[in-house]
Amino acid sequence: MNITFHPETSADHYAVEEMTREAFWRFWEPEQTVCHEHLLVRKVRNCPSLVQELNIVARANGEIAGHIIFTKSRVEDTETLTFGPLTVLPKFQSQGIGKALMRYAFSIARDMGFRAVIIYGNPDYYPRAGFRRAAEFGITTPDSSVFDALLVYELYDGALDGIGGKYYIDPVYESLTDEEAREFDKQFPPRQLHVFTPVGVLLDRLDSTSADALRAKDFPSLDFIKSQSEREIAGIIGGDSIQTVRDVMRAHGFNWGTRA
User: Fold this and answer.
1) pLDDT at 28 over 60
2) Cα gap 85→67, rounded to integer Å
3) Distances from the Cα of 213 to the Cαs of 159, 209, 241, in angstroms?
4) Confidence bin at 81 (pLDDT 50/70/90)
5) pLDDT for 220
6) Which residues of 216-227 are buried (b: 16+ CB within 10 A; e: fewer)?
7) What span, in angstroms and rounded, lies between the C-alpha atoms of 162 and 141?
8) What is the structure's pLDDT at 194?
9) Where are the beta strands (DSSP E) in 109-177?
10) Coil, helix or strand for 109?
11) Between 129 and 258, the higher pLDDT residue
């Protein structure tokens, strides 16, 4: 497979949005009722913090197969980068395109003088690409929270030495509404909405102690558990039950956990 990269052009816009819609149709955010990510791509393209040099399309054998887009963010007064969405067309997933996009973009970002990339992302997938938990750097959310899905990639050794504190992203990432997303979605072919997989299918497989511990967290669906790291879930239910979670998640189509 021949993979190439190039800056996104206006001719790519609809195809990239349609690909993003396809890749993210199984959203996990419990408060959403429709996919937001393809609208997010449109909005990020037009926000002041966009880094145009890091708005990149990947092609596999000439076909659009992936996309990554970056904005400026900051840790206190230190400028950093954030990307999102990172998209790979489903038929090309698990073939290394996502990691190749990151490597390509990170090289450009490093040459541009940026220190680090910080994201909210899958806490078991991104460490395989070199990301580390933000807590290791003393970096938190604006409300001082820490969790495994807040992740950091230093673009060179020691890039964040002596730098820590609260992490801030562009408000564009928090500006989306279901109403606006549903209206935007009318530009694309109709599609049946994704139905969340109830967490009960997992609770029924766990021993009573583990099930009660997980039930107390009030996770609404398996889709939401996907945003938690295996380490975090094991801390709730105990390590002896984690294989059951892996099995149930896999059986319902979720690529989850450190062994996924």
Assistant:
1) no
2) 8
3) 39, 6, 11
4) very high
5) 84
6) eeebebbbbbbb
7) 18
8) 74
9) 116-120, 132-133, 139-140, 150-154, 165-168
10) helix
11) 129
Residue 237 DSSP class: H
Cα 236 to Cα 14: distance, rounded to the nearest angstrom: 42
Q: What is the pLDDT of residue 250?
A: 92
Q: Please identify which residue in the block is written with the tokens 């890091």.
A: 54
Residue found under tokens 């992740």: 151
Q: Which residue has 């989306």 as its token pair?
A: 176
Residue 56 β-bridge partners: 7, 68
Q: Interior CA angle at 103 toward 231 and 47, to 5°?
A: 90
- The closest alpha carbon to 56, from 110, 98, 2, belongs to 98
HSE-up (13 A, CA, CB side) for residue 78: 18
Q: Is the dihedral of CA 89, 198, 235, 248 positive or negative?
A: negative
- Kindly give, in sequence order, each residue whose CB lies less than 8 Å from that of residue 101, ignoring residues fewer than 6 positions away: 5, 56, 58, 66, 67, 68, 86, 88
Query: From CA 40, how far away is CA 163, in angstroms rounded?
Result: 29
Six token digits for residue 5: 């990269």
60 contact partners, CB below 8 Å, separation of at least 6? 1, 2, 3, 66, 92, 95, 97
Q: 191-194: long-range contacts at Cβ-Cβ below 8 A with a sequence spacing of 24 or more? A: 191/21, 191/25, 193/33, 193/34, 194/25, 194/26, 194/27, 194/35
